[in-house]
Amino acid sequence: MQTAAPAIPKIEMKTLLISGSAGCIVGVLPLILGAAQPAHLVIAAASAVCGGLVARAMHRPDRPVPAMGAALARPMAADAAADVAPRTAPPASASPPAEVARVAAQDLADLAPFFSVTREQLRSIVGQTEGAADAIMASLNALNAAQIRSAGCINDTRERIVGVAEQSDAALHALARSLGTYLDGRLRETQAERSAVDAAAAQMRGLDTLIVSLEKVGASTRMLALNANIEASRAGIHGAGFKVIARELQDLAQASQTAMAEARVQVSNVQQTIGQVLTVEHDAEGTRGEQHRLQALMTELDTIAQTTTQVLLGMVRTDLTEVASLTGAVGNEVLSVFGQIQFQDVVRQQIEAIDEANAMLEHCLDGLRQSLSGNEPEARVRPAAILETARSRYVTQIQRTIDAQALGQATAQADTPDIELF
Amino acid sequence: MKAANAEDALAQIRAGLNPALVITDYHMPGMHGVQLIQELRKLTQTRFTPMLVLTTESQQEKRDEARKAGATGWLVKPVQADKLLQVVKQVAPSLQAIAA
Known about the structure:
The complex is a heterodimer. By secondary structure, chain A is mostly helical. In chain A, 83% of the residues lie in helices and 1% in strands. Chain A has 2 domains: 7-148 and 341-406, no CATH class; 158-337, Helix Hairpins (Orthogonal Bundle). Chain A has helices at residues 7-17, 22-33, 38-50, 53-58, 67-72, 76-88, 98-234, 240-341, 343-372, 383-392, 397-406, and one strand at 419-421. In chain A, helix 1 (7-17) packs parallel to helix 3, helix 7 runs antiparallel to helix 8 and helix 7 (98-234) runs antiparallel to helix 9 (343-372). Chain B is of the alpha/beta class. Chain B has helices at 6-14, 33-42, 60-69, 81-91, 96-99; strands spanning 22-24, 51-55, 73-76. Chain B has a 3-stranded parallel beta sheet, covered by helices on one side. Classes of the chains: A mainly alpha, B alpha/beta.
């Protein structure tokens, strides 16, 4: 049995286990189980356990290493020397009794289901880990893509806002210039109109003065005619001719006074007419012009507002909507990652179960070693008990399903839902 | 609020924390999740608080044990986030705004 073990698989196994990672153990176990003869399996597995490497790789701080395992955990070199020595020159007296050897062989054969189950559980762990890693990678890629797209949208939005701000600024400056020009022109026009009105008023006041002067002339003429008439009456017959002249002079004064009164009325009418004309002209043409200019300015302002609003609405409808959508997608991906991370707890419990089973295997193999060495084992662990113990520690449906599949049994369907509210 | 284990959760709640919902694992160092629920049901402030067990454990016996202890629901890991949120909305409507 010992001489049938080739050296190469054993060396490969120890090299892989030194890293102490679960991945290496996964790689090692198929190598162990793939051995053509049970003898390879025993020696390889026993060497690994005796070297303490499996225990170190799988050991958790909260679970003490079994005493027998600790006793067996000696350096690899010493272990190898101890292994090689009996193989190369076994003393005849050290050969185990036939019955002990038979029992040991049966125990080793009985370990096959345990190894099958363990191998499949480890493969399941690898599969779940890879699946979760792939899903997390896919989510991270999606997150990255969403982040890049969001950054692009935000950058586009920023550039558009800057563009709109620059355009609006230029348009508003132009509008302000137009408004300033209009107000300057309007001020000049108002000043010119005021000057013209003031000049017309001054001219009208000049006409008033002239009329007053003419009225004074008329009053003097009337007084002169009255005096001339008095003097002509006093002169009697000699003043008859002069009296006619005085009467004519009096008629002339009367006519002059009437004409002055009429002239005053006419001047007043002219003043009113000029004022009305100025007002009407200003109201009609000026107001229309101002209306047009103001309308043009308002249209320009409205265009700026419309352009700005359209651009902003466009950004809200496209860029920001997309950003909001991407943000939602990011949230979903993050939640998906959180969901995937739960695999760690599932896998941890599977590994813990395998860890416990390995500890029992260690006991079992130590018992075999003691039996084959001619000693009575301190505690005998039957191979079937290892598997049963491992099964009793199952907590997940995955473990039970994998167990059944590894042994070629019908997979028990879970009759309970994954989510149940009581 | 988070608690490292059942004892920590009990200590926080006894110190005055009044949760709207409790989500606990089953397998934890020390007291397990169903024992925690049993203890919480004895406290005034958590007598009617919805309590979910989120666990890898799928044994029907454990599930029955949780039901008897006063658990509101049992969720087997891995649970998709949207389904978890759906359950949270269902058992704790006051948290709907947060869950949304």
